[in-house]
Amino acid sequence: MILPVLRIGTRGSPLALAQTEMVRAALVKLFPDWALPGAIEVVVITTSGDKILDRPLADIGGKGLFTKEIDAALLDGKIDLAVHSVKDLPTRLPDGIRFVATLPREDPRDAYISPRFNALAKMPAGAVIGTASLRRQAQVLYRRPDLSVVSFRGNVQTRLRKLAAGEVDATLLAMAGLKRLGMAETATDIIAEEDMLPAVGQGAVGITCRTDDDRTSRRLLEITDETTMTCVAAERSLLQALDGSCRTPIAGLAKLGADHVLSVRGLVARPDGREVVKGDRSGDPEDASALGFDLGMELRRQAGSNFF
Q1: Which residue has the higher pLDDT, 308 or 106?
Q2: Which of 118, 186, 250, 308 has its CA 20 to 30 A from that of 289?
Q3: pLDDT over threshold 90, residue 2
């Protein structure tokens, strides 16, 4: 049977295109008809987050800026599925769209990159670190309040060019992105999860489609990585409980152990790093969403209403 042309929507950054190719390859492996020329079409969509680069994300609307135009194309029937970095997906998706699948997760840790100092701990007082993430900013300042943190946006290549030009002394990027781009050697150091808890969904590739498109949903379910989906479900429930936005530094990471116990860690912080609230939960992976939500509510109680 010849399958109809499958249209995959994605942002146009090198990382987004690399992740889209991973999804295409996974589908072709299971459905060889899609390996035929023209059977899969990649539709590049420029999002508001890609266009507006001169302001912090928190000032221009947050995470939805990287998904709004792609969601519109999906709902309009211009594409059949969309590929995202899970950490860019809002916890509440538009009506008519479902988050249906994930690929196996890559290294979720953050990479420290600097041509001058070989580790975050070795940076001298007053040194400047650039990041677009309030989560990274808060955790850096919590450990190193003597550093200066400035807004630093753009895709991986853009930020590395700015770093090489001397605009900052160091920057932080997702290790997963560097690996997928074949740039792992760019990392000066990999920051331990205990020192910097990752963003919810970091390292995971997520795939969305229309809720009424059962044919595409069934095929996507066949390529999903169940362990990653379980961990991401816990992390996104944590975020939902905290009602997180780009104005609130939130971190979360779930892991499924060899003993089949799911452990979930979470963190909420003030942007200046003066206060950090942490917690954890563990339990049956079948209860992933409940574990994450319970941890989120506990962090909310500990932090207090004024924190948000």
Answers
A1: 106
A2: 308
A3: no
Among 106, 109, 110, 119, residue whose Cα is nearest residue 179:
106
Does the pLDDT value for residue 94 go beyond 70?
Answer: yes
Instruction: Report the C-alpha gap between 9 and 79 in whole angstroms.
Output: 6
Tell me if 198 is assigned to some domain. Answer: no
Q: Answer yes or no: 88 catalytic.
A: yes
Q: How far apart are CA 120 and CA 188, in angstroms?
A: 10
150-162 pLDDT, tens per residue? 998 788 888 999 9
CATH number of the CATH domain containing 132: 3.40.190.10
Place of tokens 């070795």: 122
E-strand ranges in the chain read: 6-10, 40-44, 81-85, 97-102, 110-113, 128-130, 148-150, 170-174, 189-191, 205-210, 250-256, 262-269, 276-283
Residues 7 and 50 in one domain: yes
Count structural domains, the chain: 3
Residue with the bigger pLDDT between 307 and 175: it is: 175
Number of Cβ atoms within 10 Å of the Cβ of 180: 22
Which pLDDT band holds residue 244 (cuts at 50, 70, 90)?
A: low
Query: CATH number, domain at 302?
Result: 3.30.160.40
- Which pLDDT does position 305 carry in this prediction? 79
CA 230 to chain centre: 15
Band (pLDDT 50/70/90 cuts) for residue 50 is low
Rounded CA gap, 92 and 35, in Å?
33
Tell me the pTM.
0.91
Examine residue 197 and state whether it is found in any structural domain, yes or no.
no
Q: Residue 218 gets which letter from DSSP?
A: H
Higher pLDDT, 23 or 307: 23
3 found inside a domain: yes
Question: Which domain range does residue 82 map to?
Answer: 1-102+204-224
Given 88, 169, 213, 294, the catalytic residue: 88
